[in-house]
Amino acid sequence: MKQREIKQTITFRWWKTDKSDIKEAHIEHLEEHANNHITEMRVAGMTSGYLCEYVRTDDEDGEDGVEYSGWWEFSTETL
User: Fold this and answer.
1) CA angle at residue 71 from 76 to 57, to 5 degrees?
2) pLDDT tens profile 5-49
3) Most buried in the list 39, 48, 58, 70, measured by CB within 10 Å?
4) 50: number of CA atoms within 13 Å, CB side?
């Protein structure tokens, strides 16, 4: 029997616009936002794109939250 195996990968990365470290308390929110945004973009047929989000978990994050930028990409590999 002939088989065909395909591996699909979604990669995303976040960084703070001021280049400082990502706050541990923000990671879960950023991951959830990325997954939701990527799902919407994949339905629209996109294979990569920018991410942008403001996260505020406490008063230290300022009134508008901490600004994050990111990038995501979808790839397919035939094994």
Assistant:
1) 130
2) 999 999 999 999 888 999 999 999 999 999 999 999 999 999 999
3) 70
4) 4
Examine residue 1 and state whether it is found in any structural domain, yes or no: no
Domain range for 45: 6-78
Tell me how many domains the chain contains: 1
Determine phi and psi for 15, rounding to 5 degrees.
-150, 155
User: What b-and-e string marks burial along 17-56, b requiring 16 or more CB atoms within 10 Å of the CB?
Assistant: eeeeeebeebeebbeebbeebbeebeeeeeeebebebebe
Angle at 19 between CA 18 and CA 21, to 5 degrees: 110
Residue at 58 is within a domain? yes
Side chain identity at residue 62, one-letter code: G
pTM for the complete prediction? 0.86
